Amino acid sequence: MLAEIKGLNEECGVFGVWGHPEAAQITYYGLHSLQHRGQEGTGIVVTDGKKLKGVKGEGLVTEVFSADAIQELEGTSAIGHVRYATAGGGGYDNVQPLLFQSQSGGLALCHNGNLTNATALKYQLEAQGSIFQTSSDTEVLAHLIKRGGVSSHKERVKNALSMVKGAYAFLIMTENEMMVALDPNGMRPLSLGKLGDAYVVTSETCAFDIVGAEFIRDVLPGELLIIDDNGFRSEMFAMASNIAMCTMEYVYFSRPDSNINGINVHTARKNLGKQLAVEVPIEADVVTGVPDSSISVAIGYAEATGIPYEMGLIKNKYVGRTFIQPSQSLREQGVKMKLSPVRGVVEGKRVVMVDDSIVRGTTSRRIVSMLKEAGATEVHVIISSPPIKNPCFYGIDTSTKEELIASDRSVEEIREIIGADTLTFLSVEGMVEAIGRKEDGEHRGQCLACFTGKYPTEIYPSTVHPYEKV
């Protein structure tokens, strides 16, 4: 699985379209372009103005949606989701969008991120009689909306959003409107576009290019967009505060052809490589990047240092998910199914190996070993982010310090574990400067919690009492 190649997995991606005669087909292509954000499950819910209908399943977009399944999803508006299981775990029930039917009409919703106070809210809701059908934190919002009394749907949504904490980009759909919400800290990417007369919303702008939509603007932190047949209107459900876009969107998660808050991801990664060249001058013969997110960084490093960039590692794009449980000895070799060193490039060479992060260290150790087995005389590992020392509670599957190799080890200790000749991480200051989130000369906020331990929101991890903050 992907987790065996890379140490980090982001929770999901969302896509929605309102007012298009081929809404399900458009959503299918949009989700396919977001597949890198989650491979464990996917779903689409459509509305024809009278009822909501959905199809979902475990697996990839191409596995879950046959041509017949898409044809059955008749409607002019849709929301869709790709998922990597973090909060709530996996399983069919947790695949989104979640779809609920009631006497007052249907409600579908999907979510990118993680609600840090979900456990506390579940305790409160269950005490008031709610029965949860999933273990996903996303379902909490549905219960809060439905328990919002006799006020309008919009007010119930705004009140519910004011109660949840953490990182979230929500798509909420009824039979006659779609609502789009981004958390007040702006921790997840979310953009609005136009496709003919239809409106499109997506986690990454690369999906606009795939479906032929035109980018309009980013959704603002604390903003609620209401989209229906009359167009869209904007309201603020909360004041934007302590803006903190996830730094790993630029470093690893997003596709290089996406723009996150106006910054092209490929360009940002090239700049990370150039900054590494300033901070980490190395005498070497060849530079190579670990596919895919580190290739842009490696190109930037090579351009800045003059050391030739080569494809020293090849990713096998045809290795899908495996349900075979190999022996430990075969599992240790499993990374070779996904990555292969190019002997003709690295043999007899001093190699600079560029990667975006080191989480648990297992994959880095195997790649360094493969390069040396292929004849590399030296392997110098440079990382385009600082050491990840702290868990993430916002939708990334690093929720405990114990699983992070850098939480209690020095850089030298990590170097010995992975077997590299040298190991260097990019500084926090250099990373922030290279990404370039500036406005009028001032840095716009980005979340650095996994590097610095300074969280932009209150944290209520499930490992402590649900009402106890940490």
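Second entry:
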Amino acid sequence: MSQPTQFIPSTDDVEVALHDLGGDGPILVFAHATGFHGRCYIPIADALADRFHCYGVDLRGHGDARIPDGLPMIWTGMAEDLAAAVKAVAGDEAVFGVGHSMGGAAIVLASLANPSMFRSAWLFEPILAPSTMAPPAEESGLVLSARKRREVFDSFDAAFERYASRPPFSMIDPVALRAYVDHGFEPLDDGTVRLKCRGATEAAVFENSMNGGFEQLHNVNMPAAVIKSGDGGGPALFAPGVAEGLPNGELLIFDDLTHFGPFQDPARIAEEIASYFLATDS
């Protein structure tokens, strides 16, 4: 059973929200994708509860994290948030890390600054692209979509029903979608609910996605699985290069999943995570 949220000081006057998702065993920390939050991974954590003690982190600009006005959404800051959370819960103990998209990049960037922080990592399409690529511009599809995202719904149920009716969220397991909505929206005084990660914030995160981590992959020595989906999108295209660049990287291909794969089949993803960590930590 999940425990009360802790707020952990990070850099830039940020307070990270750290959620204890329960379980018994070695510590496993989830780092979320852009626009998501740490409690999206509750269904996966529940399936891992007999093998790992799981935590979810809300990085700056997401979920319940507290940030000052005007904070730049720099991805090295995301890594600093993750490192602060890991140190708060584990001290100097190395943990297992599961990172999705931006969260995968945050794990790699955090490990560069803290080489002994992670025992091993499971990275679903981490956003680590060569610096020769141009960062997303203001008029790019991801940025424009984020800026136009509908933020307010009549209720949590109305938000859930809207998301469940349209791709890509319509492909998500209903329990995972419920976790995304119930912890990703906040009630307003007029009875409506609003996204915690506002559209402008999500757009700013996308605009800062060139993080310099790709050129430093050779300095990351932890064992790491890099997962590639079959949807053919940019994150899937990055995955082979990331796996090749990591000294102890391994590419795993899940052709039947999309970039939202961790939420499409949480039970299967939990088994894949457990199998990899148990194999690499033996």
